[in-house]
Design a protein that fits this description.
The chain has one domain. The protein is built from four helices and no strands. The protein is mainly alpha-helical and 87 residues long. The chain is 59% helix and 0% strand.
């Protein structure tokens, strides 16, 4: 299984655990996500790393093409809403 597939699976497990209110499963999924990020940072796209570091799990799951039951992100996948300066 590819690293991205492992990340997607961990995100889906986290999502399901949140829906169930299963604290132990939430903690396990978060631990797995942190371990995957630490071990495979160089193998992941910079955008995915950004989402995982910022704990933007809904955006990360959408980025990976997964369906998310999380609340919809305030900004679209691929952006954090900053947009730069406009004069």
């Amino acid at each position: 299984m590819s690293t991205q597939a492992q990340v997607r699976q961990a995100l889906q497990e986290f999502d399901a655990a949140v829906k169930r209110g299963d604290g132990a499963a939430i903690s396990g999924a978060l631990t797995q996500l942190e371990a995957l990020l630490a071990a495979h940072r160089a193998d992941l796209s910079p955008q995915l790393v950004h989402f995982l570091e910022g704990r933007s799990y809904a955006k990360a799951l959408l980025y990976l093409g997964g369906e998310s039951g999380f609340a919809q992100p305030a900004s679209p996948p691929g952006g954090c809403g900053g947009g730069g300066h406009r004069h």
